[in-house]
């Protein structure tokens, strides 16, 4: 386990695990994934708004897609209410029974049998220094660090509910819902209807959202702000910008916060390289 920067060492949630998997299992996963991706593509199991761990569907395409939608609202002087939802321990909390139910209904029976064997009776232990815990059975989650883990999560969340008039964008466990209207209150009403459907879906499939870490942003060139919305009965915090897939999207898409943050990060990295340049070297 690796301690996260600035976290308390006595808290178990402060550590990021490095998962060690059997080599034979990794080879099998790579071979199986090629066939699995073909079946998923042919049957169109994963919808178009799902990005991540798919060919030609990486972060930049998803960001371009959402930014283009927001610019359309700017051009028509509308309000775009957006909710950026945070999912708690998404890969670790995948419900095995629910996942196998979806796999059985969407994939060929031989794929179901193989994946059931792959997920069933998995055990894990944790090593810290020289100490190793006892073996524990994994009742939920996809294997961390595995090749199949991300695609199985996409299959599990492929039926995320959509609502007319609301744009949905997902990148693995990063989920965004956006609604646009001439009136800010109506934009929030449309967004709230979508969040109500998502709330029921989360409860059905035992997925836990992190409401305090979720963010609501109003994208507009006008002065008003969309009224607050709720997820699981908890009001989502409102902000003037949101961090999404490594980019900071502010209210008017000026990119000021993003440029400032990246320049600061680059400056820190440059300072770390001074020892390589020599003390008499001047950097502009």
TrEMBL record:
PROSITE patterns from the UniProt entry: RT_POL
Span of domain Reverse transcriptase: 1-249
Coiled coil ranges: none
Pfam families per record: RVT_1
Any single biological process term in GO: DNA biosynthetic process
UniProt cross-references to SUPFAM superfamilies, sorted A to Z: DNA/RNA polymerases (SSF56672)
Top-level taxonomic group: Eukaryota
UniProt cross-references to InterPro entries, sorted A to Z: DNA/RNA_pol_sf, RdDP_mobile_element, RT_dom
Stated name of the protein: Reverse transcriptase domain-containing protein
Protein source organism: Euphydryas editha (Edith's checkerspot)
């Amino acid at each position: 386990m690796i301690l996260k920067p600035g976290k308390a060492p006595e808290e178990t949630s402060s550590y990021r695990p490095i998962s060690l998997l059997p080599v034979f299992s990794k080879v099998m996963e790579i071979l199986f994934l090629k066939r699995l991706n073909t079946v998923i593509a042919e049957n169109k199991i994963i919808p178009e708004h799902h990005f991540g761990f798919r060919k030609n569907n990486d972060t930049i395409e998803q960001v371009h897609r959402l930014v283009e939608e927001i610019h359309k609202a700017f051009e028509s002087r509308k309000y775009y209410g957006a909710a950026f939802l945070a999912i708690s321990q998404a890969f670790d909390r995948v419900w095995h029974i629910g996942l196998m139910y979806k796999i059985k209904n969407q994939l060929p029976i031989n794929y179901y049998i193989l994946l059931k064997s792959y997920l069933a009776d998995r055990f894990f232990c944790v090593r810290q220094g020289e100490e190793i815990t006892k073996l524990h059975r994994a009742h939920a989650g996809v294997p961390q660090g595995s090749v199949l883990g991300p695609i199985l999560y996409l299959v599990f969340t492929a039926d995320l509910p959509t609502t007319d008039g609301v744009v949905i964008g997902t990148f693995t466990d990063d989920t965004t819902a956006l609604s646009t209207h001439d009136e800010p209150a109506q934009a929030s009403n449309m967004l709230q209807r979508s969040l109500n459907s998502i709330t029921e879906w989360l409860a059905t499939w035992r997925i836990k959202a992190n409401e305090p870490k979720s963010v609501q942003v109003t994208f507009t060139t006008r002065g008003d702000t969309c009224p607050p919305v709720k997820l699981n009965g908890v009001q989502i915090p409102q902000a003037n910008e949101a961090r999404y897939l490594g980019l900071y999207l502010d209210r008017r898409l000026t990119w000021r916060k993003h440029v400032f943050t990246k320049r600061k990060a680059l400056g820190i990295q440059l300072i770390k390289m001074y020892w390589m340049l020599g003390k008499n070297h001047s950097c502009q």
